Amino acid sequence: MMQRRDLLKAMAAFGVYAMVPAFARGANGAKKYDGVTLNVSTFSTAYPTLLRQWLPEFEALTGIKVNLDTPSFPVYNQRADLELSTKGAAYDVVNVTFIYSSRWINSGWLTPLDEFIANPNLTSAEWDVHDFLQGGIAPETGRDGKLYGIPWVVEGMLAGASRFDLVTEAGFKFPDTTDELVNVLQAVNKKQRVAGYVTDSHYGWTFIPYLQAFGGNVFRNPPDDLFPTLDTPEAVAAADYFARLIREFGPNGGLTYTADQSTQALKLGRVNFSDSSLAYLAQLGDPASSRTLKTAGFGQMVQGPAGRFPGMAVHGLGIPAGSKNKEAAWAFIQWALSRQVTRRAIQAGYGSPTRRSDITSPAYRSKQIINGVDLAGLSLSAMDRAAQGGYMKYRTVDVYPQVDQQLNKAIALIVSGQLSAKQAMQQAQTASIADLKRAGAKI
């Protein structure tokens, strides 16, 4: 445990006093929220891990005790969705998950943040909400035009190869198309006992860029027409292709790999290719933990017959409508996403900042160049393409989580050989229509 003297030195070194809002610190040593306990929950990933290290500083200045809960992504979403739907008081700060953002915001389960931001007694002008990427703010905004979350991660999907040396030795360049990717994987799979491909088993996220690249989509015309389109010829072809990547070129057990497991396999050199966000792929450049630092290569998501469609996701911190500690919760969010904390996270290696001042800073850009490849540039390109293309609209409609689960099941059934691509996608289509009708969607 950090001693008080060491804690004070650390706080002074990183300008912690400036990170914490004045109203939360109090005057003359009086702490407005002394004795308050905040229950904060996000899913387990890099940024919350950093915040956990620095929580003692926030607690020392404010008197607030923070219980930070970070379960896995699916477990977090299940718990948060249930708790928020009851408007209970179990949580004071939550992650506003991208695929649930429309459901949680427009159902009235979260607290509008505009009044906190506009109140100079609660928010300093220096905090500057306008410094956050507009592409990150938009999904956190409700139909009423109010802001319900502050983004802490904006992810653009990229492609990475941990053993790109095997690719060049085989006479290939980094694959740019779906056909090229298969050709490369056929050439390098199992070379030096390195499997060819792995991806996060959240297939409602990782499959969609391939679905759209083949000319398919999740819905007919989201958000206006939510009739599912999972059994079209294009969707079936995409599912067959994607399942082949996992089945033919994946490691043993690759069907169930999480994002963390996939990243670890890349860092250890057990698997070569993957599609993921910068926050994960940048870890291949960590000299302390990656065995593939010198052999890694990176590129854009492959394009298919219909084009290139890298996924984009945004997660933010919000305050549940049922929280009994809303002002203290806002103080925590301000601290967690203050310029000082976000810049400190960059210095610690965090790869998915949401403040433009961080993204354009030399401190960030210099850390995102690995083996001559500018990962930050690739990520920004992917996010710009997603924002301008409008093809991510499927993901923030209220009923997408139901379809997301059906896609997870369908891809697993195809990879395992239990159903053909056509059978699995027809089953997903039928089940999705039934789920959407039960949810009251107009289709």
UniProtKB/TrEMBL annotation:
Subcellular location as annotated: Periplasm
InterPro entries for the chain: Bact_solute-bd_prot1, SBP, TAT_signal
Keywords: Signal
UniProt KW Signal keyword: yes
Predominant subcellular localization, coarse grouping: periplasm
Signal peptide coordinates: 1-24
Top-level division of the source organism's lineage: Bacteria
Pfam families xrefs: SBP_bac_1
Entry-linked Gene3D superfamilies: Periplasmic binding protein-like II
Name the UniProt record assigns to this protein: Extracellular solute-binding protein
Species this chain originates from: Cedecea colo
